[in-house]
Amino acid sequence: MEEGNNIAKVYNPDEVESRLYGKWEERGYFKPEVNPEGKPFTIVMPPPNITGQLHIGHAFDGTLQDILIRWKRMQGYQALWLPGTDHASIATEVKVVEAMKKEGLTKREVGRDGFLERAWNWANAYRGRITSQFRKLGASCDWSRERFTMDEGCSEAVKEVFIKLYNKGLIYRGNRIINWCPDCKTALSDAEVEYEEQHGHLWYFRYPIKDSDESIVIATTRPETIPGDSAVAVHPEDERYQRLIGKKVLLPIMNREIPIIADEYVDREFGTGVVKITPAHDPNDFEVGLRHNLPEIKVMNEDATMNEKAGKYAGLTRSEARKQIVEDFKNLGLLQKIEDHVHNVGACYRCSTTVEPITSEQWFVKMEPLAKPAIEVVREGKTRFIPERFEKIYFNWMENIKDWCISRQLWWGHRIPAYYCQECGEIIVAKEEPKKCKCGSTTFKQEEDVLDTWFSSALWPFSTLGWPEDTQDLRKHYPNDVLVTGYDIIFFWVARMIFSGIEQMGETPFRDVYIHGIVRDAQGRKMSKSLGNGVDPLEIIKDFGADALRFTLVTGNSPGNDTRWHMEKVEANRNFANKIWNAARFVLMNIEEDILQKEEQAKKYWISADKWIISRCNTLVQEVTDNLEKYELGIAAAKLYDFIWNEYCDWYIELVKPRLYGEEKESKIAAQYTLVMVLKKTLKLLHPFMPFITEEIFTHLPGEEESIMISSWPKFEKECTYKEEEKEIEMVMSVIRSIRNARAEMNVVPSRKAKVIFIATNSAISQILKKSEIYFQKLASASEIIVKTEKKEIPENVVSAVVDQVEIFIPLEDLVDKEKEIERLQKEKENLEKELKRVNGKLSNEGFVSKAPFSVVEKEREKQKKYQEMMEKVLERLSFYQR
Ligand SMILES: [Zn+2]
Ligand SMILES: [Zn+2]
Hints:
four-stranded antiparallel beta sheet, four-stranded mixed beta sheet, 883 residues, binds zinc ion
């Protein structure tokens, strides 16, 4: 009986969480080896950027993964959650450049080696920050296997893949149109461009036709690229322009002749049906240019200023050039009109600068042959998206995929393993610098560019397991079981992991892709610095505990959908934790230490209430397990909450008290045993969601297991289903509820006991009511109960209610002192009459109603309504007593 006194009176998450996390890590519980016999189960963590701090999105993503991995570990799997970080090429480079700027230094001044030294120092200093923050969340990932996209092994994997793809002809260097960020001064892949609708203009310009008085009118949204025009184009079947095809126009402002060509790409409905073709500055025009062998005239520099090819516009920024060119056309009388136009403009995902489509020498991955099998595995169900609707988005992207531009004009990242012979220009792709070229030269220069950050993260499901080495981890944990990630990186990352996995490993990298949404504020807005509506998960952990944070993030959420953050919810979940704590303390203080050894003895004396909670708990085991299988984590959490709060704490503990405090030894043992057994099972089910409090309680409960984390997941047991007893106790509960309601309506305090008379015609129900007398006494303030089969000799003044097949009567005199109550009601009536007179007077005053502000009048009307309603109730009660 003294056992319970060891447990702290108040739950202190701060102290408990750091202590328990340390214990788990020290004992090696996060390693898959903790279950050496089990089948492997693997999740690789989407690597957070080393530049990052734990934000609410990480906390959400991490919680979902941790729930799955803890659950599988308890089911006996060799569960591996492999953590790591991403070098975040652009993001990190931007940070390091900013830091150097403060010292008055530029990249060029410090040089590549000097820059990389600074970048590595920065990376080493910050890498630990985000991982230590993940620890605070309770993330049970195996830190002994932690990886970094630029560690030795991952870098080796990157080189290996690059060389293999190059040798297969799937990586090539070419002059292609790419998205260029003039601010970051690097190429970007299509996925790195964010499109936004903008209100712009459509300019109609006249281009004179050579050797004629006629002209042709083109429509464009980008006048600044006119100096780069190589042709104008019409649709081959457009009758308006048939006779002009093959002729030439004189490009105004540049005084250059360009041909009128016919190409099916032209949309006859757009503008005048004639468009200018600028192959060096538009992806579609680039394709047209290839088909018609047009010259590419690049008129912009790396910073998007105009270059010498732009003639007199050289040196202007792109927007200055736009203004000047429009002005010049106007002065030449060649501007026909300007229309408003809404179009999509692409911006750099890092710095939001408008990207410039530009032709450039870059490295590309040929996508078509890689995309095909990646589409297949999803079609064949070898990889499932949860929810399924994301498959459509995936297919749409993959079926229309363009070659992937993988070179970046940055220094921080994996430098492309290509070497240029300084004599003959031969490109040699190899892991190390070659000794000698076939031309005999021994001087080489390595490619300056680095690879797109996502090139290395695309290999994450196998590079982290040791590939290209044939390791035991690789054989055991590839393919991974589930990837948990947000819908915003399906293209950047998920798609690329799928085709990389198939190409390098011959097998899709994961069975399931569990997609989640983002965390929004209470009003449904995105969290952002500018709105100041962000939530810092570390603050929440400090104030409410990691368990409350986790439970808040997961409840109410379903796969693929965004979730909303409500501060009240986290408070409610902290209260939930306290409720569990108090219940556990109660249990601990009321059980014998060796109670779990008394199973056989206890079973013999189980009564309906015990069987009811055992059966309900058993159903819960099945439902929570089913929900987890289906990734319905939010539903599982809600069921756990309801069961623990209502059924276990508010009902079972109350139902069991008379026996715990009573004299019957056997019944006491049965009650104690059930209390502990159900609590233990429930804690296990709750553990993946609230790992800390469940462990802390578990270690105080009797039993042999050393930690809940590595204890076994409860199984559904058919023999623990007691349908009859469930029905019985549920009926008793609803009778108690209606007695409580009736008393509450009469303002009766719980300490005032009252007789309860039941009429039940069904004899089974009568029996149940009779044997449940103690519950009605303890939980419904019944002084005694009388069970009758017919409505005879019921007192005249009673309060009544009906539940299912039971009629309930409570004599009025037991509940209230009639005279006193009438007196009280009379007083209330008088007060209300006064109030009503005042408010009615005000509202019948024309002057008040017409002059006072609307809201003030409205408030008076509300008062009037409220008083009238109260008055009706008082009169009703009075007539009830005065009958
Ligand atoms: Zn940028
Ligand atoms: Zn050579």
